[in-house]
Amino acid sequence: MDNELQLYTYFRSSASWRVRICLNLKKLKYKSNYVNLLKQEQKSEEYKKINPNQVVPTLKLPDGQILSQSIAILEYLEEKFKLEYQLLPDDAIKKAQIRSVVQLIASDIHPIQNLRVLKEVGEDKKAEWAKKWITDGFKTLEILLKETAGKYCFGDQISFADIVLVPQVYNAIRWKVDMSEFPIIVRVEKNLSLLDEFVNAHPDNQGDCPPS
Amino acid sequence: MDNELQLYTYFRSSASWRVRICLNLKKLKYKSNYVNLLKQEQKSEEYKKINPNQVVPTLKLPDGQILSQSIAILEYLEEKFKLEYQLLPDDAIKKAQIRSVVQLIASDIHPIQNLRVLKEVGEDKKAEWAKKWITDGFKTLEILLKETAGKYCFGDQISFADIVLVPQVYNAIRWKVDMSEFPIIVRVEKNLSLLDEFVNAHPDNQGDCPPS
C-alpha cells in the first residue's frame, strides 16, 4: 500500500515495455520493481505470490490490487484513464480493427518467439524459428497496415496497436528479420520511436538495463 | 451484403469455437461459412482477401464489414450486444481479472500448441510439446481460479473467461494432459458443457464435422 502505481518489469520484456509506453502516454507516474528474468527472479516464492504465472509485467495499484497480463492492463488503464490520453477510438469497428492488430502481435507472433519458448526450441534452431514466425506475422501486418496506417498504425492517432508494434519490431531486428519487406511497419516504427513516451519506455533507458 | 452475420469457421478451431459460444449466448443468428483447414482452404486467394492472416474465425457483419481475431470479435460483440447477454462485468478490476485469464489462455497457452506451430515442432515431438505448454498454463490457471471460481470461472456468472476455457480443455484432453491435477478447471468445464449455448458450439455439432 505505498500509495503509488508499481510496475514489476524487466527492461527487455516486450510485455513490460507495452505497459511502460501506455503509462507514459497517459502521464501516470509509477515505481519500477525490477524482476531479472535472466536470474530467474520471476520464479522466486515472493514473486509467485504476486504473479502466479511467474512472468512480467505485473501492475500493483495504489490500493494493493494486482493486475497481470499486459493486454488486460492496457484495457484497464484505458478505461480508468481515457481522458488523460485516448488509445482506443469511440467507434466500435475501428476499435475491433485495432484490437485485431494487437492480437495478431500479442497472440500470433510474440508468444511463439518468447524467451521461454525459444529455450525449448533449442540453441541451434532458435534463431531460424524466431525469424520465421515474426516474418510470417509481419507479412499479414503489412497488408493490414496498408489500409489503415498514417503516421502511426491507424491514421495519425496513437493507439494500442502502436504500443504492441514497437517492441515487436525490436525483436524482429534482434532476430535478423529482413525489414526491407515491410516498408510501412518500418515507417510507422520510426515515427513512434521519436516520441518521448516511447523513448523513455525503451529497454536501453530502464534502470535495470546493464551498462553497455 | 446478405443482411446477416456470417462466420467463417472450422469445426475444430478453438478460436472459431470461442466466437460460436459468444454468438449463441447473445442469441445472435449467423450463417456458417466452412473453411476446411485440413484442405488448406484458408490459403485460397478468395479467403486471403477476406482474412489476410489466413486463419479462422472471420466475422462478416451484415453491412459487409469484416472482423478478425477471436478476442477482438468477442470485445466487439460485447460492446454492441451487451444487453443481450453481458459477458464482462461493469467493475474495471473484475474486468481486468477476466481479461487476464483470457490472455493467459489466448496468448500464453493456445498459440504455442496451435496446429501451425505443432507442424513446425514435428511429428515425433508434437504430443509432448503440446502437453507441456497446456500443463504449464493450467497450473497457473488453477491457482487463479481458486480465488475466483464458483459454478463458472468467475462466480456464477458466465464471462469471456469461460468462453476461452472450454476449447482449451478440449485441447488438453486431446493431448492427454493429466486433468486430475486441475480439479477446479475440470469442475467449471463440466458445468459449462451442460449448457445449450456451449453444446451447440461444440465441434461435434458443427455442419462441417465429418460423421464419426
Automatic annotation (TrEMBL), chains A, B:
<dbReference type="Pfam" id="PF14497">
    <property type="entry name" value="GST_C_3"/>
</dbReference>
<dbReference type="InterPro" id="IPR004046">
    <property type="entry name" value="GST_C"/>
</dbReference>
<dbReference type="GO" id="GO:0006559">
    <property type="term" value="P:L-phenylalanine catabolic process"/>
</dbReference>
<dbReference type="GO" id="GO:0004364">
    <property type="term" value="F:glutathione transferase activity"/>
</dbReference>
<dbReference type="Pfam" id="PF13409">
    <property type="entry name" value="GST_N_2"/>
</dbReference>
<dbReference type="GO" id="GO:0016034">
    <property type="term" value="F:maleylacetoacetate isomerase activity"/>
</dbReference>
<dbReference type="InterPro" id="IPR034333">
    <property type="entry name" value="GST_Zeta_N"/>
</dbReference>
<dbReference type="GO" id="GO:0006749">
    <property type="term" value="P:glutathione metabolic process"/>
</dbReference>
<dbReference type="InterPro" id="IPR004045">
    <property type="entry name" value="Glutathione_S-Trfase_N"/>
</dbReference>
<dbReference type="GO" id="GO:0005737">
    <property type="term" value="C:cytoplasm"/>
</dbReference>
<dbReference type="InterPro" id="IPR034330">
    <property type="entry name" value="GST_Zeta_C"/>
</dbReference>
<dbReference type="InterPro" id="IPR040079">
    <property type="entry name" value="Glutathione_S-Trfase"/>
</dbReference>
<dbReference type="InterPro" id="IPR010987">
    <property type="entry name" value="Glutathione-S-Trfase_C-like"/>
</dbReference>
<dbReference type="InterPro" id="IPR005955">
    <property type="entry name" value="GST_Zeta"/>
</dbReference>
<feature type="domain" description="GST C-terminal">
    <location>
        <begin position="91"/>
        <end position="211"/>
    </location>
</feature>
<dbReference type="InterPro" id="IPR036282">
    <property type="entry name" value="Glutathione-S-Trfase_C_sf"/>
</dbReference>
<feature type="domain" description="GST N-terminal">
    <location>
        <begin position="3"/>
        <end position="85"/>
    </location>
</feature>
<comment type="similarity">
    <text>Belongs to the GST superfamily. Zeta family.</text>
</comment>
<dbReference type="InterPro" id="IPR036249">
    <property type="entry name" value="Thioredoxin-like_sf"/>
</dbReference>
<protein>
    <recommendedName>
        <fullName>Maleylacetoacetate isomerase</fullName>
    </recommendedName>
</protein>
